[in-house]
Structures are given as structure tokens and as C-alpha cells.
Amino acid sequence: MPVTTAAAAATAPALGPDVDALRRQDPELAEILLAELERQSTGLQLIAAENFTSPAVLTALGSPLANKYAEGYPGARHHGGCEFVDVAERIAVDRAKALFGAEHANVQPHSGSSSVLAAYAALLRPGDTVLAMGLPHGGHLTHGSPANFSGRWFEFVGYGVDAESGLIDYEQILALARAHKPKAVVCGSISYPRHLDYSAFRDIADDVGAYLIADAAHPMGLVAGGAAPSPVPYADVVCATTHKVLRGPRGGMLLCGSDLAERIDRAVFPFTQGGAQMHTIAAKAVAFGEAAAPAFTTYAHKVVANARALAEELTRRGLLITTGGTDTHLLTADTGRFALDARTARGRLAAAGLVLDTCALPHGDVRGLRLGTAAVTTQGMGQEEMTRIAELFAAALHSDAEPGRLRGEVRELVRRFPPYPG
Ligand SMILES: *Cc1c(COP(=O)(O)O)cnc(C)c1O
Fold first, then answer.
1. What digits encode the pLDDT tens for the residues 321-343?
2. 103, 175: one domain
3. Which residue range is the domain that position 170 belongs to?
4. Residue 215 Cβ contacting ligand 1 at under 6 Å
5. Which of 187, 193, 191, 197 is nearest to 229 (CA)?
6. 354 and 271 in one domain?
């Protein structure tokens, strides 16, 4: 099979100079890498949890640090030869602390879920009661799904959002906290489009003597750019991913005060993980460095402005946006006047090259669509393009849509905003 298309070849620098060597050695896999690069470079990536990392982050990820075993922490490793990776991890920790104003950072969690597992391991015992957003309302798997360790090992009580407004009802959370006396309250969601009132969550946790765990996997990039309130001053432990709006490598991190530092570190290694992934930690350091630059503040605010514009333009075209808009990078929508079930809608959109997720919606058991603007904003798109995306979106949902023609128009739009300019 021919290895690549013209479009992929034009953007192949994103894969580094070694792609030609890989092509000679393993054309089958080289073709997959190039095909995925082309997929990312020719469609609209609207999945709320995704972004495009910088070439610098990709370089760290593809570096020989990937070879290094480094169990433990800098200066206290179980392996020899850690003199350079120790420095990389110290830099990552220092940058994370400075970026978020935290007393302590642990940058080793392999993913957001691993960071939540470690937070629970540090603060809870199996069988403890935890109050978190219910999964049908936007809670994550790690917030009590019976298919996940969280639901198996802890007693979760779920809070929700108001059926009419779609907004979090803090009175209800306080009432549930008083009734169930949880050991921890978790705030954070995979789909809630509004800012959280961390101070209100802190008051509720204090009212019942519970820990407050903020699972800020989604908004942490906005926090870094000053476009969302920070959970750091309020939560005992903050869990996060580094790959969503924050635009770093796939992975997790934890922030806490000095009082919990040792417990958190031991909960990551040796309790829930073995060797740290030093290439990923180096890439996290690069991403934290990028996020500390003024350009990232501009980026974070633009992400929100784009999400607001997109919500408005989609509303104008008949979609029903939960809570009537957004404060963040993400929005959730009912297909509104198109009256399509979410899976059909997602399929039609995918056929036109608009890639997004379905998600649970608060009213009843309907599913909706969830989309975000982190990736398209990294590509340099602005308000004008949000209007264009909304047009394409509505056109793709029509029963008489022509997916082939729309796919061409999406390709043309994205061609002007390549994620990895040659
Ligand atoms: C994305 C997310 C996670 C999990 O991240 P993974 O890296 O996929 O494990 C956890 N909690 C919330 C709220 C998230 O949005």
C-alpha cells in the first residue's frame, strides 16, 4: 500500500526526522502514524478533552528519556543513572508549583484517573463514603462508577444539577453532605460547562469535616491561563490531567499543601504506580513552561471566547445548549430542533469531518453532544471560524445533508489552520 497522501506528507515534520527511517523499517506502522496525522490535520477536532501538543512536547515524548527506569523520587531512586531525569522531574515539579501557586506537586501520575486513585488512596479507606457528582450529571468514571475501582471500593453518593437550569445546586450538596457524612467531597466533572464555586464546596466540606478533592482534569489549562478560578487555594488535593486544555503530554498530576505532600507522594509511588515515565515528565515540564508564557494566557481566554461564540452560533441554528452557554472550553448540547438521537447526530457529524463525543445530559436519561474549543483554538481559529463551524454543524445534522460536500468544506477550513504547519 502506498504509505502516504500528499496532505500527510506536507505535515509529516510533526512526526520528526525519523519518520523516514520508521517507514523503511516498519511501513505498516509508519502508515498508521501518517494516517492518524492526516486525520487530525483534515477534520475538525472538537472532542472537549483533546488538544494539539507543541512540537517541543512531542520531541520530549519521543526522546531517549523513554528508556529510563526511575522508581521513587529525585534524590531517592531505586535505580542508578537517574542524574539527568532527576533534574527533569525537579524542573517539572517546580514549574507546576509556580504555575498553580501550590505548595507541593507530584507529576508522576500516568493519567488523570491514576491521580484520582492516588488522591483517594492518600485520604480514604475502602468502604468510606464519598460525595461526588453523579455520573448521569457529568461525574467521571472515577467518581463512583460501578465498573471502576471507585464504585467498587467506596460508597459513593451522587449530587446533581438542577433539571431546569442545568446548574449545580449547592444547597442540595450541603443537604446530602449533612445526611451522609462523607469522608471526602469531590468537585469536578467531564461535562459541566460552568465555573465551579470552589469556596462553596470548601464550606460544604468543612461543615461536615470532610476532605475536599478537586478533580480539575478539564479546566486546569484554563486555570493556568487565568481564564478560570483556581481550586488550589480551596481543595486539600487537586487532581488534574496534563493533556486537555493544558496542552501537555497525556498524563496526570496532583497538587496539595505541604501537610499532605508525603501522603500524596507515597500514594502515587509505591502504592499505585511503579516507575515514573520520565519522557512524559520531561514533556510535562516543557508544557508547564509553555503554559507560563504570556501567549498561553491569551490562548486560554481565546478558548473561552471561542466556546461562547460557538454556543451562541449553535443556539441560533436550533441546538439546545445546556445552561444556555458556557464559561469554559466545553459545551454540551441537545440536538434541539433536529430531534436526532445523539449517536445518529455524532455519526452524521463524523461523516462530515466534525469529530466530537456524546455525553449524558442532566434532564432524564437523554444523551447529548459534548464539544470543546481547545484544539481548534490551538490551530489559530477565532470567532469567524466558530460561525463557520456552527454552519457546517447544522448542515451536517440535516436529513438531506451531503456529507461528501461538507467533508470537503471542513477539509478546506482546516487546511487554512494546520495543527502542525509544515
Ligand atoms: C479526563 C478526566 C479524568 C481522567 O483522565 P484520564 O487521563 O483519561 O484517566 C478524570 N476526571 C475528570 C473529571 C476528567 O475530565
1. 999 999 999 999 998 888 899 99
2. yes
3. 60-291
4. yes
5. 197
6. no
